[in-house]
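Annotated sample (chain length 160).
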Amino acid sequence: MFDILMVCTGNICRSPMAEGLLRHLLPTELKHHVRVSSAGTYAMHGNRAAPHAEAVMARLGIDISGHRARMVSPDLVRRADLSLAMAQEHLTTLRGMLLFGKSSVKLLTAFSTDPDQQDRDVEDPYGGPLEMYQASLKVIQPAAEGLVEWLLAQPGITEK
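Output written by the structure step:
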């Protein structure tokens, strides 16, 4: 399996939204070869996804109500083939968990199909209105779509 780890702060807003969306977007030929999970740099283990995160995803037909937050760890980052940070602060934390640099630690938006959004942070909607979650999704979605394109172009993923 090719393991992808999405990382944000509390693992209740951005990373579960990105996780759910990527799982939803994976084409049939990748579904059994790519595993997507998420974690947070300051997660309270077991917390549910934020209600607005669930609502925004439900509008797309994606159910993240079963999500439970967990704390990111060096072991999770080392096991992942690709760790994707929602913001620069998470990228710094992830890189600090590794003894040596790892090219598979990136910002999620590095994959964005929208050039104006490449390598920018996904703003944290926590505590804000539904519109803030929708705005975060507008940044996450083209990145997730670009990630699917990248995955399809990678030789060997379906052989893992």
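Annotation: Strands lie at 2-8, 34-40, 82-85, 105-107.
Annotation: The mean pLDDT is 95.
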